[in-house]
User: What shape does this take?
Amino acid sequence: MVIGAGHCGLATSRILAEHEIDHVVLERGDVANSWRHERWDSLRLLTPNWLLRLPGQHYDGPDPDGYMGAAEVAQFIERYAADSPVPIRTRTAVTAVRRCDTGFEVTTTAGTIRSRSVVLASGAGNIPRVPELAAVVPPSVAQLTPFAYREPACLPGGGVLVVGASATGVQLAAELARSGRPVTLSVGEHVRLPRSYRGRDVLWWMDASGVWNQRYDQIEELQRARRLPSPQLVGTPQHVTLDVNVLRAAGVEIVGRLAAIRDGQALFSGGLAHLFALADLKMERLLDTFDAWLRDSGTPVSVGPIERFEPTRAPQVPRLTMDLRSGEIASIVWATGYRPDYRWLGLPVLDRKGEVMHEGGVVRSVPGLYVIGLPVLRRRKSTFIHGAEDDARDLVADLKTFLAQEDPQHRVERLG
Assistant: This one.
């Protein structure tokens, strides 16, 4: 059984079908539900269209170097599902998963199903992460997450504080600034990347150089790698870079990490210069890796000369406090990340943060249970659409071995 009909669940289903493993895919809403209902209007993929691929399907449209919008991604995945030989049950929410004598008993809104194995493909970003200090924001300030945000007009008039400077935060800060609103961006740890490097999309370098294929068991500080925010990138027809320097030039005020809110006062950490220097250093090291790969591999590709980019400029005297009761800020957008939602998972496999404890997607403590689509699950590319196939093939190989040991004729049994 596969829980979730997003790109990871459908990729897993396709591989299971290739191995003639009987299964069913359950989806709480529609196919590609999150792309349809949980994205803001202007969102586009960070990856260029030519990189959009799933087992048996790849992008074949007229704009390989463009970036799909959310609705187009939903259509791509829906077309993939329509070609699937496996039954997909939409609008069938899973409400509980428990162990039973034959494996797992899965309770849904449409009845109960038993299965020898379960693949959790319900996504890494089901719930926005909102810090506890949101509870003490003055009631006069509206609060939204990216799930609720659609466009600038959905916010009340006045200044906006965007908290978080990953891909989501910088994109929303830029959009809100273009709408004419005063915008303040609270910046913590972030990953800086140029949109293009030496004449090619930076993600071409990630793919071609093999950086994206680095396996989880080859990465030092794996847990830290899994917690890294998404890179500061945006997909536009102009292939523009979007970083702190660009936002400052657009009039966005840059402040440090939001550390606390006391008596209506937002307190921001100092040390922006150090934070920026660290992000710049990591970017330079990655670009050095690309250059070394190209030099040593002898790959016959046409690229431009080596580039280096202007350091991130920190404000000379960054603001450390902001009175949220003054009327300067009318709304806060919490672009502080997402987390999976496993409240329905009745198995002792979650850590104190509510995330599945696994080894490369295999839940060793509960044989027959797997998870896919989480950050750096088996490779650095695991959460990207094109990363689903390799992870799914690895997990299905393990799952097939498990089933052969437990039950040579794997069956899915509907109880009611």
In short: The chain has two domains: 2-126+340-414, 130-334.
